[in-house]
Amino acid sequence: MSSIRPLGRMLVSKAKNKTVEIDATKVSLGSFYTTQSTWLTPEIRKFLAKALKASNGLLLDPFAGDGHLLTAVSQDAELTKLVSETNGFDVQGSKWAINDSLLKIPNPSKAVIVTNPPYLANHSARRKGVSSLVAKYFENSTQTNLYKIALDNALAVSDYVVAIIPETFLLSSFPKDRLELAVVIQDELFCDTDAPALVACFGKDLLEEALVYTGQKLIGKLPEILDLRKSSSQTKTKILFNEPTGRIGLRAVDGSDGISPIEFMPAASFDYPAESVVVSSRLMTYLEVPGIEDNKIQELISEANLDLNSIRGASSDLVLAPFKGNDKSGKRRRRLDYRLARSILNRAADSVLSKRP
């Protein structure tokens, strides 16, 4: 019979039943503090100006913490004259009115909400041994992360919401019909984590075609970016992932050194022990495409890498999930999920097979 893990003991190895001690209160709050104002780009300023004008200059942060976001907006040279009043809530402390905004956000005046909500996935709460502290939030929601619960609550009571949230939001299933603008922040924004973040700006209208920026560079409309993930393959070639004897190696994550990008390669060139591949492998693996002859494998690999790099360029990498901050060159690391990898390989196989005599 397995024993119940004590509160504040995070599981780091299931096989060895190894745990480490963590600050259960801090982890359960899911708080990462924003002390920089680099998130306040020209496009976000434009959105906030419109929102404040439509909301009588009222500004609210339901997860206010030290109040850095309220200060950044209210003291910004272009926005200060538009702010008439700022208010905040927090679950602890004496600076703000006490309120648990993961349960409900009081906002009768329809103030613009600017916030950095807590980040904590339900599965992470279990692994970190803090499920009992956050269970009440997940019990009353279909969402799987605290920041999504916070977004649901904010969007229910405000016409305009600006939220600093994980960049993985772009690829999530969270409804984006009110999303007007998303700005990926390339710099490390938080003082206590390198979690990749973006600023999501929601309006009151249903648009379903948000503009996406990386810093101040316009990448395109979100639906067009997400379309790059869709498979156009007609044949759906059989592909076996996590196959230790496979003829193709896949490094599915950018290396931290800045010179080892995501790449398909011949198994003989892949410096990763085949015996380390297991059914749950997601970062380094071998795969097999049974329908491709040995003398066509290199062509398949070349086609797949061309497609991968084309997609990365067209989307400025946004079709790939961020992975553990930036590399040594300052570029955000990315991870290729197997769903997209399969689409890429299917298209490559179509190309190779179409050339058969």
UniProtKB/TrEMBL annotation:
Record GO terms (molecular function): methyltransferase activity; nucleic acid binding
GO biological process: methylation
PROSITE patterns in the cross-refs: N6_MTASE
Coiled coil: none
InterPro entries: DNA_methylase_N6_adenine_CS (IPR002052), SAM-dependent_MTases_sf (IPR029063)
Descriptive protein name: Unannotated protein
